[in-house]
Amino acid sequence: MEISALQKERAAYQPKLPKALQGAVKIVEGAPTKSVDNQEEIKKLFPNTYGMPLIEFVPGEENNTKRINIGVILSGGQAPGGHNVISGLFDAVKKLNSENRLYGFLMGPGGLVDHKYIEITADFIDKYRNTGGFDMIGSGRTKLEKEDQFEKGLEIIRKLDISAIVIIGGDDSNTNACVLAEYYAAKKYGVQVIGCPKTIDGDLKNDQIETSFGFDTATKTYSELIGNIERDCNSARKYWHFVKLMGRSASHIALECALQTQPNICLISEEIEAKDMTLNAVVENIAKAVAHRAEQGNNFGVVLIPEGLIEFIPAIGRLIQELNDLLAAHGADYKDLDKDAQREYILSHLSKENAATFETLPEGVARQLSLDRDPHGNVQVSLIETEKLLSEMVAAKLAKWAKEGKYNGTFAAQHHFFGYEGRCAAPSNFDADYCYALGTSAAQLVANGKTGYMAIVKNTTAKTDEWRAGGVPITMMMNMEKRNGEMKPVIRKALVELDGKPFKTFAAKRDEWAMNTEYVYPGPIQYWGPAEVCDQPTKTLVLEQE
Amino acid sequence: MEISALQKERAAYQPKLPKALQGAVKIVEGAPTKSVDNQEEIKKLFPNTYGMPLIEFVPGEENNTKRINIGVILSGGQAPGGHNVISGLFDAVKKLNSENRLYGFLMGPGGLVDHKYIEITADFIDKYRNTGGFDMIGSGRTKLEKEDQFEKGLEIIRKLDISAIVIIGGDDSNTNACVLAEYYAAKKYGVQVIGCPKTIDGDLKNDQIETSFGFDTATKTYSELIGNIERDCNSARKYWHFVKLMGRSASHIALECALQTQPNICLISEEIEAKDMTLNAVVENIAKAVAHRAEQGNNFGVVLIPEGLIEFIPAIGRLIQELNDLLAAHGADYKDLDKDAQREYILSHLSKENAATFETLPEGVARQLSLDRDPHGNVQVSLIETEKLLSEMVAAKLAKWAKEGKYNGTFAAQHHFFGYEGRCAAPSNFDADYCYALGTSAAQLVANGKTGYMAIVKNTTAKTDEWRAGGVPITMMMNMEKRNGEMKPVIRKALVELDGKPFKTFAAKRDEWAMNTEYVYPGPIQYWGPAEVCDQPTKTLVLEQE
């Protein structure tokens, strides 16, 4: 199997561990915890895993631990560093007792249910150290939420004499990890479940979890590309580049990339929602910046757009809601009409406000919303190419202003969407170290008999030596939220906080960035070289921890 | 002005020079040269710049040279390393005589004609050393081909007491540099013109020019992204990724990226043309690979597509030709027909062969070809999203095979287009050194009174020390070709050679890559670290020079 020069050299990288995890470990337990909200309900749903203390690891004395076998699962979308969590876990369990075994369930949580697994051995894992991707054991989106899945999993757990399952995933996967932990605890099966915080989206974080792994590497990769595009933009001086960034629910990725690259415009979904902005208002803001720059002779620029934007625009949300109801009720008498009649039909049946919103949409998007529906009959918002939608609407607005003599520039757009380009990049030094420490922590939580915990590593803006590792009860991060019409206990998703430091830092600079050209070109992730270049955490993390 | 940590540290990089360029230089002249073809015609068109000898620089003795002022121009699309050509030029001319001046004409060749320029000073240039982009002085696509442009340029050349113009550009720009050199020589204006080989496309190379600058960095950047996508593809195991790569005329970029990343499929336009393949045959080949992988349970893969593909498919070329003629002649009676009638009209008016080709096209593409035309009335091939066209046609083919019981997999596609992501990346060590050496060579060609030459650096797969620098008469690389209906003297464009080592190496492996999953993940360009990672030239260059 051929591997690249970088892979060869990078394989030798030894991730740095916090001091407390470098040798034998003992645990220090804090006071009992409670959930962030809905304490009574969460407590009732998780009688066996509620209220446990926070845990911190400190240096301890070597003592032989009993033999343990662990099963590990990668859940959900890829994030750089997953292989290093598994490496940290592997090295730590083998160090605890060389007879310990680590099993990897294949292609996500489904592997547990379907009994698909491999044993992870030293030879096998060495090929994956410090590499990106989840291809070591694969990942998948099967949700572990039903008792028959839990019982089916137990069969293979028993067969392999596994005492703990480590689930590496995002907020939903960790919520499910906790449900599984509670179930196995209630049944007294003696099987522990530990979670690890993964997501490039950055939306799994809170007072206990400083950041999720993968966010660092993914945002640095996207920022490399955005910086390259900015430099091209500033050299050719003839295009507006509309760059959509992966991440459906929160705008952390867009915000971090903006802090790194200083584009002319960056939209933050959470702000647009909070201000109840219309799509037209969003477009007008962009068009104003374009027009202002044109007055200075600068008919070029860069706009960052979070993937989930459309769903955060309240007026669009209301329109989609009504369209879903309308098409569900009248789909039949509507679908045989011709194109123009369909449009008329929709406009005449929508409420006045939603009809007005519908009318502002470019024809292609309007048709997408009124025609393409998913198997549940819902409008498929994810099919909308937001970056093209916005640039088309900006172009239309500018054309109108040109007619009115208010605009006199040229406007040509290029479109980009970055997602798959960063989810499997080789982890930065930060993510390589952070993930390895998370895996090591997970092993120690298992060795100490814990269940329903997530592995955590804190103080991550300090030197690795000074990072603090431990565990947090997953119930502590939960509240009740409506999901598919039902109230469910879930880990609260972290959206961009408009009074948080990262957003405020961005908001204080953005007018300058819009008017002037203050691009910053971060360049590609460096694994060797000056620490200033190789070992910096994200701007978001630094600002949040300041 | 804020700059990134990488920029700060990278600014200190001192590009390595070939031994011959490290100190004082003297020139060794070879035998007279002749053009690669059409010698009589080229000689007649370039009486003053034809037949000059190849030049090589060797270490010489320090001697004071006369004062010279030089003007430099960036021409055409961005390529990583342009700023280093100018840095090399600047350092060399200042070393020759600290009174020498370097002027940069702004926004491309138009800056010379319109007298827009700046003086490049030590303070100014330091900010741009080892950076990507052409933003130092901007670039543009104005073609220098008319006498009034040459005369207008002369005015500012005289005013600034400039004795030589250095034009950094691709094949067309260097052809024009030669025409300008010949004109100034014929008029005995005493103004020298020197070219530098730039293009990420890799199509400006020949026996004298081993590679054009920018190709190294751009292909490494694209390969980083393709590798990341491959790793995602191999982790999620559910998508076929169709990746289009910039470069209209030659497939060097796609070929180099394939050699670096070993995708399942890489299309090479030159091969498709040589084999007179139809679009349907291209699609069928891809679909066969998809079906074969599906049989092994692998419903995923990566396909690389050169941007210019469509125009290389002979059947499509013939169709477009006839459509252009047909729509020009009958556009009027056709344009008011409705959609279906338009299609009928076209099908009934095309020749049998072209009608058959037209019928195989997806509706959207067929409409694009028959409706959207440029101001000259021509079909706009560049609007066709080849990556989507191919994946749609593959999906249709697979659906047909599924009905016939010949295919039983799932097929879902993702699309990418990489171009702007790599044109302005910070130059790799190779491009940083190569460009600096080219700039230094250009200065020495000027100092030695040469005109109509292009700066060259050879032996570039050896250590930098052993690189050989010199100059090649531009006329030596010329032949006569038809451009816009007229025979013109031009530098022969280098397409992928089907009997060359890079293609043959690829062709020998591609079946294995298609059937198995042998992805290689090159990772991001590294500027520090092991030489194996940081200082390797492209695979294309290594194979060609073996």
From TrEMBL, chains A, B:
Domain of life assignment: Bacteria
Active site, UniProt feature: 201
Places the protein is found: Cytoplasm
Cofactors required: Mg(2+)
Binding positions (Mg(2+)): 171
Entry binding sites for substrate: 199-201, 238-239, 246-248, 307, 420-423
Catalytic activity: beta-D-fructose 6-phosphate + diphosphate = beta-D-fructose 1,6-bisphosphate + phosphate + H(+)
Residues of the site described as Important for catalytic activity and substrate specificity: 172
Primary localisation category: cytoplasm
Protein's UniProt keywords contain Thylakoid: no
HAMAP family: Phosphofructokinase_II_Long (MF_01980)
Family, similarity comment: Belongs to the phosphofructokinase type A (PFKA) family. PPi-dependent PFK group II subfamily. Clade 'Long' sub-subfamily.
Protein name: Pyrophosphate--fructose 6-phosphate 1-phosphotransferase
Organism in which the protein naturally occurs: Segatella oris C735
